[in-house]
Specification:
This protein is an alpha/beta fold. Helix content is 29%, strand content 29%.
Length: 175
């Protein structure tokens, strides 16, 4: 199985009424699934640096009549750039984006800052040994490197999960 957003979101504890931030949402495969899950009482903040990706997500959500997504074009390597309040969201999703990020620590710190106590960072990325799909293998973030990054900003590893044949997933909690 390749990465299947609806199946992955099903494995995670995304519930009605939650506030979720999708860091590096791209065209929104996970954003849309999470928006359906959190329902009208919840909200998903969709962040990306690419204007075109956010445009594609806006079009897709309009076609599916999804109105609980807030779109923001930002550089999440700058602390505070999300413009979200401290301790606001229940979940921060970071999927298949960290290999593109230069200042990974600032990116992780922004996730920590906006996350509520008890909230989760859900990290999904390419297995370093996965086939030829995805970014070059030398740019991929392995599980050990991800653990060091996220625990280094104050998160605690909760568990791992299988996100697909070419991906791994880790869940970190904010104490």
């Amino acid at each position: 199985m390749f990465l299947n957003p609806s199946r992955v979101v099903e494995l995670l504890d995304v519930r009605s009424g939650m506030k979720v931030a999708d860091f590096g949402c791209g065209s929104g495969h996970f954003t849309v699934e999470m928006a359906k899950r959190v329902g009208g009482d919840g909200i998903v903040y969709a962040f990306d640096v690419q204007k075109e990706a956010l445009g594609a997500l806006k079009s897709r959500s309009a076609l599916e009549n999804i109105s609980n997504i807030e779109y923001r074009r930002v550089d999440l390597e700058i602390e505070g750039s999300s413009l979200l309040a401290d301790n606001l969201v229940d979940i921060v999703l970071i999927s298949n984006v960290l290999f593109q990020v230069e200042d990974k620590k600032s990116f992780a710190k922004e996730a920590f800052r906006v996350l509520k106590s008890g909230g989760c960072v859900i990290f999904i990325d390419w297995n370093p040994s996965a086939d030829k799909l995805g970014p070059p293998q030398n740019m991929r973030i392995g599980e050990d490197e991800a653990r060091v990054l996220f625990t280094g900003v104050g998160l605690v590893e909760d568990r791992g999960f299988k996100a697909g044949d070419s991906h791994y997933g880790l869940v970190f909690k904010k104490p």
